[in-house]
# Entry
Amino acid sequence: MKRLILAAFAVLSMCPVMAQDKVEAHLGADFVSSYLWRGQEYAGVSVQPMTSLEWKGFNVGAWGSFAIAPQKKFSETQEELDLNLGYSIGGFNIGVVDYFTFGGTPFFRYGNRYQSNHTFEANVGYDFGFLNVNWSTNFAGCDGDTMDGKRAYSSYLQLDAPFTLGKIDWTASLGIVPYRAEYYYQDISSGFHINQVALRGDYSIKFPHFELPVFAQLMANPSSQHFFYCFGFTLKAL
# Structure
């Protein structure tokens, strides 16, 4: 799997690209009423900073989530740091992500899936404009087991369909777990299932000298039979 990812990056780096010649930097943070991801709720009110660099289709960045007021109903780990590396050309994108949750295990302890709080994921997708399709698979680090006790290579398929209605930019999403994956531990299914049906609306409030992007999201998980609602806003420095 690691060799396949490296080979893909090598091939793509030789492709001609129509992208910016200068490095672009992005810095900002989301403030959310709850941390929702792939049909699950991980924390309550949180601040989620991000920073990234982009150059000729390549991008590298960091994203975090830190609970402002940790709640007992969630796991003790309500802090997260993700590092990502990716490449895109046209509508095609490929990348890897290192998800790290703060739970007492040192950051630089990688080990196997029982001794590390890191999860390494490879992802690939294509944006058709009317539909964005992304497939993700865990290939190293913390992950679940198969019935035989082997690494599950937990995977996820997400479909996003953007549209505009009433001056608001909407995104309808469908999340699918294709086979048994302990990684999505809040679900109750042991096989193929839909764990996310969501609708998100984005709108930018205009002020005299700046704009404030706000968003709201409704998310249902048919597997766990839970329903979530989240509201947030974004502050951007660059």
User: Anything to note?
Assistant: The chain is about 5% helix and 55% strand.
